[in-house]
Each structure stands twice: as C-alpha cells, then as structure tokens.
C-alpha cells in the first residue's frame, strides 16, 4: 500500500516535517508493510523553504541584510538547483516575528531588508524571483524593496525619503531611473493567498495593520496615506493597483510589486504544488494523509489540508485528516473530500500539554485509527 503523507505544520508546536515524521511513525506501528512518501507542505508563505529543502530541490543562501527596523540581520533565501530561480520569504527579513511586541508599529517598519535579498539574487544572475509574502511586520507598499533596488521616493520638495509606513504620508513622486539593470531581464511571481485589495474596509490597513502593532489612529493614518500613495503610484506607473485583488497582501507589498516590477500574483499553494508534483504524487498513492494545527470552519478557506483533499477527491483517493483540534462541521469535512478526521487533543488535555506532546499524541492517534480505513 502506498501512502502519501502531506501535512502542514502544527503552529507553535511542530514543523511540517515533524508532523510528517510523527504520522509516518504511527503508520509504521499500524501498517509496517506500507510504503510511505513524506511530503511536508505549506501554503507558500512561511514554511515554503522546509518543503523545498525536504525534496532536495536546492539550498538556502544566507545574505547580510536588515530587519524591518534597519538593524543588521543575516537571512536566507532558497536557491533552486541548476536554475535561475530563487524563493524569497518576506518574513525572513521583514517579518513580524523579528520584532519585540513593543517594537511593532507599521509606521516605522519597511521591506528594505527583503529588497536587499532580492538585489543579492539578481546580482548573482537569478532571473526569476518567487516572493512569498506571509508574516510581514510592514505596511510600506513595497517601497522598501523599491529603495533597495535603486528606486527613490520623493517628497513635495523633491527630497529623498527612506521607506516606511509613515513615508507613504509624505511621498509625492517616485524616481525609477537608477533601478538595478538586472531588473530588465527578471520576472517576479508573488505567492499570494489573500484576495484583499490595497485600500478600503477590507484592505491592507483595516484588515492587517492591527496585527502588526497599529492602534486605531495609526490604522486611519495608514489608510489615508495608502489611498493617496496608491493613487499617485497608478499615475506614475500607469498601472491599476488600487482595485487589484490580492494587492493588499503583506501591507500592500503585492500591489507595490505589481507597480514596480510587473509581477504576477499566483496562489502560493499552487506554486508549491507545481514545483513538487503534488497532483501526480496523489494519483500514485492509495491513501493520502494530511494534517494541520487546528481545523475549524475557517479552515475551508484555502488552507493546505482542504486543498489537498480537493485534489484527492478529484482523483477519487481516500484522504485522512489529523489535526491538533477539530471543530469544523463533520458534514462540511465530508463534503470537502475527507474520509475521516481526527483530533489529537482530547477535552481532558490542556492546550499546553497537547502542544508539548504533539508528536507522540499524533503518532498514537494514527496508530490507533488507521486500520479502520484500510
């Protein structure tokens, strides 16, 4: 029997690779004769490097860069073997996790460090940049990236500005004359899994800025500044970004990249699925097992296990879900293609205990339940 194990991470507990190994351990205890293929997965945001590395598709390159507040930082990007393609995660140099809670304020942060990573890759001859944009600390509409690539932001008097959320209030023009020449022969793919536009009640400021340390007053400032900046940017670049679905992702990074680089927005899961041959591996398997940290009614909106279940359903393959906790409607899970769904946390357990012992609990749950579906 061929079993494909393709889980997401259990956030704050196990990486996707650790989840896959725990599931495989349970399978071995229950069905020692089974052939297991481990494919830890991600939605294309944080965790993509782990997926790519697990498949030996390339290696990580460490780059001297900056964090969201301009402090020195060494951060990696993923270089594909025998290819001119790299995968850069915005969170590695511009991520919220790099800042202490008291430092988090999107008025003060920028994507400049990510821009330095992009520049490093371009100057090494890389021509295709895949940019995963989850987990950012920023709301600068990719102006930091623009700065790092040689672009200038100008105020009403023609003075040069450093990128940040607050700079959006002052910027009245851009100057792209000194952008690095390698940009002309490059292309960008933005791994983006949200539909939010740049501005409005469902835009970058109102939906995401609070998570990055913004108070209600700061959110209002960012919204007004982003509307003004976005309008200016449309005129300067002759590109429509304000109404672009997904443009609000990562503090407007997606919209900015569309304006500055002719980037293409693409679903992050779909990019990884294509790179890893996920659908072909599902076709070849007799059973698919996936997992995530928590499965609730929001999980149906594009999360990894549900996308894997959709592919399994397409090819009439059974798929089991193992999750830290399951509160989603059982009928919804069945309709989405799951043959069975199991939680490793019982009502008697504390969340802390479940997280600390997740690998063992997951292995045990698989070992005790799998035979019922064979």
UniProtKB/TrEMBL annotation:
Record's keyword annotation contains Kinase: yes
Taxonomy, superkingdom: Bacteria
One example of a Gene Ontology biological process annotation: organic acid phosphorylation
Cited InterPro entries: Glyc_kinase_flavodox-like_fold, Glycerate_kinase, Glycerate_kinase_RE-like, Glycerate_kinase_sf
MF-aspect GO terms: glycerate kinase activity
Gene3D superfamilies per the UniProt record, alphabetical: Glycerate kinase, domain 1 (3.40.50.10350), Glycerate kinase, domain 2 (3.90.1510.10)
One Pfam family named in its UniProt record: Gly_kinase
Annotated signal peptide: none
Family: Belongs to the glycerate kinase type-1 family.
Protein name: Glycerate kinase
Source organism of this protein record: Leeuwenhoekiella nanhaiensis
């Amino acid at each position: 029997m061929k079993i494909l194990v393709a889980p997401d991470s259990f956030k704050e507990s196990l990486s996707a690779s650790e989840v896959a190994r725990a599931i495989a351990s349970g399978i071995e205890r229950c069905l020692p004769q089974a052939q297991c293929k481990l494919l830890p997965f991600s939605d294309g945001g944080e965790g993509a490097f782990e997926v790519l590395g697990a498949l030996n598709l390339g290696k990580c390159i460490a780059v001297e860069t900056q964090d969201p507040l301009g402090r020195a930082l060494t951060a990696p990007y993923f270089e594909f073997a025998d290819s001119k393609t790299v995968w850069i995660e915005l969170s590695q140099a511009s991520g919220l996790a790099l800042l202490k809670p008291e430092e988090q304020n999107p008025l003060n942060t920028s994507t400049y460090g990510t821009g330095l990573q992009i520049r490093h890759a371009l100057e090494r001859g890389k021509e295709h940049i895949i940019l995963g944009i989850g987990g950012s600390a920023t709301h600068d509409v990719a102006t930091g990236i623009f700065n790092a690539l040689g672009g200038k932001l100008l105020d009403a008097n023609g003075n040069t500005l450093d990128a940040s959320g607050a700079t959006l209030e002052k910027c009245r023009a851009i100057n792209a004359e000194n952008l690095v020449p390698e940009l002309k022969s490059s292309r960008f793919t933005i791994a983006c899994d949200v539909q939010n536009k740049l501005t409005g009640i469902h835009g970058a400021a109102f939906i995401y800025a609070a998570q990055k340390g913004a108070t209600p007053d700061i959110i209002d400032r960012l919204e007004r500044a982003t509307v003004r900046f976005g309008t200016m940017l449309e005129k300067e670049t002759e590109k429509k970004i304000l109404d672009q679905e997904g443009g609000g992702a990562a503090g407007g990074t997606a919209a900015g990249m569309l304006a500055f680089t002719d980037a293409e927005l693409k679903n992050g899961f779909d990019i990884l699925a294509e790179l890893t041959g996920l659908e072909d591996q599902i076709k070849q398997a007799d059973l698919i097992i996936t997992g995530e940290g928590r499965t609730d009614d929001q999980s149906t909106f594009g999360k990894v296990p549900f996308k894997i279940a959709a592919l399994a359903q397409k090819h009439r393959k059974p798929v089991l879900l193992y999750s830290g906790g399951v509160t989603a409607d059982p009928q919804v899970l069945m309709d989405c293609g799951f043959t069975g769904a199991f939680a490793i946390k019982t009502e008697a357990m504390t969340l802390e205990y479940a997280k600390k012992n997740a690998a063992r609990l997951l292995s045990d749950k698989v070992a005790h339940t799998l035979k019922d579906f064979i």
